[in-house]
Amino acid sequence: LATMPRQNNSIFYEIRTYDIKPSKMKEFVEMVNKYFHLRTAHSELVGFWSAELGAMNKVVHVWKYDNFAHRTAVRHALGNDKDWQGKFISPALPLIEKQRNEVAYLVPWCQLGKPPKEGGVYEWITFQMKPGGPALWGEAFRAAINAHINTGYTKLIGVFHTEYGLLNTVHVIWWNESPDHRAAGRHSAHEDARVVAAVRDSVRFLESQQNMLLIPLQCSPLK
């Protein structure tokens, strides 16, 4: 009842969210920019962002794995990587207040996208849906996403559903040229009858929603 269909492969994504001590955010970001190549040598980083609006002193990073055996092997290698442990992990841990991870899959009708150019901002929206999975709300949710895509003001990067973590959770990542461009697009979308109708249908299955505006870090492949 809690999970959605997945794509026809074993690939999954680990979403890691860290709360950083407020006085240490600048130091943490500097360490990431300096040493994160040690981490990306082991597995594929999809994106790494810091929260600008909707949360404070928070970073989100997403990792791609071929399967669970792949992740296990990577975690084992990281534990034995003396450079990674000594140069980043040991000094970074005292800067972190809280860590959370989720395992998620791309929904079957979504491919991981890329922005049309660098320099924009990302909107990360977390939807907590009612229990029941896609048999209950899948088509209505997809219609609401497509309605926003069709307005043309924003670019869809990915739609993920959780397998481990809080279930019936869907994360949607959008790209916009700027916060002002996003605000203008949202205003227009709210006046579009097609968007209004699709959203009205989907929110019947929604329990809560949270938005963050994210800025990509220097090491992020998605910029």
Automatic annotation (TrEMBL):
Pfam families under this entry? NIPSNAP
Q: Which domain of life is it from?
A: Eukaryota
List the SUPFAM superfamilies hit by this protein, alphabetically: Dimeric alpha+beta barrel
* One Gene Ontology term from the biological process aspect of the record: mitophagy
Ranges where the NIPSNAP domain occurs: 13-111, 122-221
Q: Name one GO cellular component term.
A: mitochondrion
Could you identify this protein by its name?
NPS3A protein
Q: Which InterPro entries match?
A: Dimeric_a/b-barrel, NIPSNAP, NipSnap_domain
Q: Report the family membership.
A: Belongs to the NipSnap family.
